[in-house]
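User: My collaborator and I are trying to settle a disagreement about how two of our proteins should look. Neither of us wants to argue from intuition anymore, so we agreed to look at predicted structures for both before our next call. Could you fold the first one, then the second, and keep them clearly separated?

Assistant: That sounds like a sensible way to settle it. I'll keep them separate. The first protein:
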Amino acid sequence: MRSLYRAAETIQKGFYIFREKTFDKLIIKVEEKDGMLLLTEGYYDIDDVLVPFPDELVKNERDRQAVLTHLTCADALGWMHDFMRLILKGFHAHLEEAGVKSKNFRRSTKIVSPTDSGRGIDSRSYAHAILKVTIPDRGSYALDIASAQCGYHGPIYPWAEYMKNRVESVVAWSHFGWQKQSFEKALLKDEHLNPWTSGTKVVGIPTAMFKHSMEFMRGFNTAVQEWLEKEGWTDFDKMLRMAPTDFEEKQSALLKDIEDYLRDFKEWQISRGRLGRRFKEMVPKSPEDKRMDELLEAVRKTKERTGLSTEVIMKDVVKKAIALKGTAEEKQLLEM
């Protein structure tokens, strides 16, 4: 079904955007070794909430997708729930969440310690969350948005084929919406999810990051609704049935609006210091702050060139400033 694949692809691309904007793993090294993608995780500052995605460390789009989806299959079901419900609405499908024990990994992804590459969290160690989509008279399909952590990059597969080739066993069934509800319940309890500790450093996913993900999900949904209103639509049925070129154009426009909305929302949070010190350089500086930075840089270079102390250099700067634009009283004091 072409329209179903289009829907799945759109959900997956939307999730990649969401994950990039809410990235929370401090990755300091990415390398492939023995058929496994190893992600070395650094030590976190106590105020880390989200961290910038390490674009400079990934070699290609497949590696990027694997990093984005490592241990986020539950996130795909929870945070993308409303988007999936809306875009799959026209198929009148029965939706079920499933936890499976995966097999035949093309490549697994593993988070490793910065001091011991043998210690870490392998994506093969956990149940993998997927969505079963059953369409009347059309059969069942596995919607696997985070498949890249298993070395697969397609978003949807015929259910029987997926079960035969990719699943060792089904370990859990849940109604559609269970994962989102579990996230909401965890927030109400103010629980920390999967925290690690290393001395006074915090490694893992603190509650603050979880709350931010919920806020970003609401922003994601707002962007989707605003785009539909702009198009004069209430769902995605028309888009999914368009000619290939028209569909690609609409899909790109939708994803761009989502990305722009989340980017602006993230910049708003950064400007208020809500995402930790790692983003402080991303806060827009005032003209006064920029001039101060330029002054301090000039002082540093003068100090290196002359060997004079910072105190001596700054006194000379103050003298010149007063001589140029100081008040009569300041100039008089300068002459004393």
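The second protein, kept apart from the first:
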Amino acid sequence: MLIQAVSAISVAELVVYPPCFFLVVWVCLRHGFGRQAGWALLIFFPILRILGAASQLATDKDPNSTLITIALICNNLGQPPLILASLYLLKRIADGIDALPFRAARLHALHIPVSVGAVLCIVGGVNIFDSNPGNDGSAHALTQAGVCLFLAVFVCVCILAIVMYYYLGQVARGERTLLYCITVALPFLFVRVLYSVLVSFRWRSSVWNLFNGNVVARGMMAVFEEFVIVAIFIIAGFITPVIPRENVQPGLRRRRRNYQAGLAHEQQSGLAGQSAPQEPKTMRDTTLNTNV
């Protein structure tokens, strides 16, 4: 019965994530594949879930350690793309706020602990099936350390989201919807990270064991959350205005460049003398052109 339930989850992932992959690629083609676009990082998530689900289904017929290791690692590595996507989408919003007490570019440093955590989870997942039984405890310790790094960066992402609301009046109009979408996704991401923490630290429990634990807990705290988060980010990608590549500059400079582009367009149309736009002088007068 347990095997059938786990297989059902894997089948559901194989049904959902291939279309999601192509939708994410479409969103990336719309916004660009640059890391600052945020959505580009989501491309890795459907790939990991498809690979992990396929490996999980393969273990039903051939339960060897290699397939189980692949499924375990793919499960552990599902969080970094979601956390980093949230981070870089928030950075995209922060780039348009000049009054921030820090430089938005410094947020790039947060990808370092996520990358280190991913490496720790990979090494821990490989060592769990090491032939030396003494390495079992150290393997779980590595996974726990990696998950703790994910949790720490997630807390930073939540703090950053709160800061964005503090400066909500200075957030470009076209990007406020993106901020709202991220806000809706964060509680689901919290539940997903919490599940990983419980699986890592309570792995001896019959409920939180990743291999033979409670399937309902996994489905409601991990699989469902991931479905919702990916759907929210894809929807956000379709409704968020596109920033042209040449206009991707921090803060007021980006707004001024948008102003100049709009003025040039009106001059070419012969309308500049009738209703020329006012050049932005303060942050409250600057909003991202939602027509781009």
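Some points you might bring to the call about the second protein. The radius of gyration is 22 Å. The chain is about 70% helix and 0% strand.
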